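User: I'm writing a short report section on ligand binding and want a predicted complex to refer to. Could you take this sequence and zinc ion and write out the structure as tokens? A short remark afterwards would be nice.
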Amino acid sequence: MPAIIPIPAFSDNYIWVVREGVAAAVVDPGDAEPVLAYLERERLALTAIVTTHHHGDHVGGNAALLARFPVPVFGPARETIPGRTHALAEGDVIKVPGVALELRVLDVPGHTAGHIAYVSREQDEPLAFVGDTLFAAGCGRLFEGTAAQMAASLAKLAALPGETRIYCAHEYTLANLQFALAVEPGNVALRERQLREQGKRDRDQPTVPSTVALERATNPFLRAGEPSVFAAAQAHAGRKLADATEAFAVVREWKNGFRPA
Ligand SMILES: [Zn+2]
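Assistant: Sure. The structure tokens for the complex follow:
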């Protein structure tokens, strides 16, 4: 199993490096600079670029990395990805060049129309690269998709085995947890999580990866059908909501206008 290391980029992005021996693949390199510095420092050769969606803070480094390392670029079939050599959609399986990692593709539209996620086929230590779809205690904004699409995409990720490690692309966790607690002030697992994640940030550690089990227990966007979240969404909307998808849409809107204390 290769090691997976975060490279911080911009103000709050993580570029994930999958490394084994002298080989390294990168996931969503929004900026080439910190990736090239890391490869040089660690004496690694880039073997692949893996992309979840077309936003600049996920693909902005592709061209400069390719100029130095002409490697395969895996990305969503339905989006424009610089240098893409492998156009992927739900059900595709890739072997990441240079490292022992096989990934299965899920279509997860919502944040962008063609967003994909990658799920490992390892039974032992399952993992998923989810880009800007599922965040620790949060989810991506709906830039190109509908609430129903995003709710369905999140449900696919929530259905993965509980121990699946979730590698998302941003360090938004503490702000997300403030919102989650506004939705579910009585959720004990959520309060415990806030203390834990605050401790990590105080020590300058990343709060990710998370796990599917932890997200199911604490992420309001995966919990729209739970009585506590559903009731909070109805109270916020000031009307009866028909189903969990409608509650998800209300919670997503609520978060858009939420300012952490
Ligand atoms: Zn994005």
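A remark for your report: The chain has a mean pLDDT of 97. The longest helix spans residues 188-202.
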